[in-house]
Amino acid sequence: PAPAPSDFIRDIVAQHVAEQRYPKIVTRFPPEPNGYLHIGHAKSICLNFGIARENNGQCNLRMDDTNPAKEDVEYVDSIIADVKWLIAGWADHCLGFKPKGATPASFTVNGKPDYYLAPVSPAPASDFHPSPLTLHSSPAAEPFFASSYFDQLYLFAVELIKKGKAYVCDLTPEETEKYRGAPSEPGRDSPFRTRSVEENLDLFARMKAGEFPNAARSLRAKIDMASPNIWLRDPLIYRIRHTAHHQTGDTWCIYPLYDFAHCLSDYLEGITHSICTVEFEVHRPLYDWILESLELARPLPHQYEFAKLIPSYLIVSKRRLIQLVNEKIVTGWDDPRMPTISGLRRRGVTAAAIRHFVMGTGVTKFNALTDLAVFEHTIREDLNALAQRRLAVLKPIKLVLTNLAAEEVIEVDATNNPQDENPTTRKVALTREVFIESDDFAEVPPPKYFRLKPGGEVRLKYACIIKLDEIVKDAAGNLLELRCTADLTTRAGGPNSDKKVKGTIHWVSATHSIDAEVRLYDRLFTVPEPGAEDDFLKVVNPKSLQVVTARLEASLASATPDARYQFERLGYFTLDAKDSASGHPVFTRTISLKDAWVP
Ligand code: ATP
Ligand code: MG
Ligand code: MG
Question: Which segments does the entry list as coiled coil (predicted)?
């Protein structure tokens, strides 16, 4: 097993473990269900679950669902499926779930429905979070939703008002922006900043009751309009949105903003280390301010930031990925060209390869492009160990072995995976008519061409050496077939089995093979940093998909979508579960054998 990774966040956690600062290390992965998860999220998932795993801790999957306008249950479902797939067999024992139907009050420590009660040390975290092992095997468990804390969050907001630390503001969003000012100069106080506690309590209750239209009023934290940190200039913590929510329906018409909801959701779940990406570093003082101002029981959660994963040639922004889906540049979120977890899965990339890649990129404070080649290398390494070798011809041309009888079938042994400790073999039929790759034949060969050429010899992999005698064309000059002689004495075990020729090519029997649609995917973008373009849609690779009708060895008729195959000399392929039909298999190329990509 690989050594446990080390980085500045893990160092901090290790220090806290050594100090016994918390009864249990609890992290969370908090996606907003406004899109599918992508490779960037995979990094966050592996970091949070990895830390939980290495410290016998727990990681909660929490829907950060406080902005109903852009969210949807389709996204909730896909996120749950993707996270479970990515961590299966690796960290699923750390996955925190709450009992189905439990409200925050009902799962607060010691059963006290007091929102002030947090997992105060030495309160056992296991009371607060039922054992993840039991929960994982229990169908009566669900992930966490920030929306299930709306009652609690409202009470927290009321508490802030009572403490004189929040006020209802009637400025329009535009005015609020203007009063906030530029970072270089102090902002101006809202004229509503001095409202009495009573008036604020009354107005906030009426906001909740639905008395005011969208954006007419907001609740703001009263912090410091002159702060050099713009996020501390009386940030909005609640706004009016008469919008139904996918989890809470029409119960609420005011919704908490991210900064208010996030730290308190962390607190309610007993999160110890709240890990996010570096753009939230400037929000950290606000995160702390809210928790401190409410004078909550300790220990409080703390926020730590790391740099985003941005692989070259990929887009890691849900907003832009939605555009690719909506404008039908791809067939959906799970299009095998998408950098989404569901797209990568459909492409044939394994969860282990994704984990190894994202964890291998390290955890730093500085955003930088990660070379896609690193990911591709990881995928190849993973599939090389895993994939069953098979014979397939993508662009077939017919070849006749004239010294074999029409009905003759010679069974040859083909190795399934030479990487296995004890490689197994299967029987492949060699017959009079076979197909070879059109790229493996040249009538007018360039210098040093070791594949099939007039008068030349090559070895048919696993079978024997053949010699090209005759090229047959139709009247228009199109190639019809290549007529060759098979030297059966060069078969394995034959007297001339060790005869050397420079070229070995792949082939399939014409009669013992099946047709298949094969999709050859390439990079979706032509430039290394599509996300930096003014219009990233202008750098879409027009040749990102090529479809061919290939010929596959007969054994692939029973291929399964979870198996991985190497079509020899061609690359790694997987059966597409979604588009394959009985009698019409569809294979997807996960990746070529070597990086042959030219822009
Ligand atoms: P996007 O910009 O794609 O919408 P987001 O950060 O708004 O991403 P969230 O759903 O809020 O999306 O993300 C959930 C978690 O994943 C957050 O903690 C976020 O910091 C993390 N995350 C998002 N993108 C990346 C990335 N490229 N690399 C590492 N972590 C990421
Ligand atoms: Mg976010
Ligand atoms: Mg976002």
Answer: none
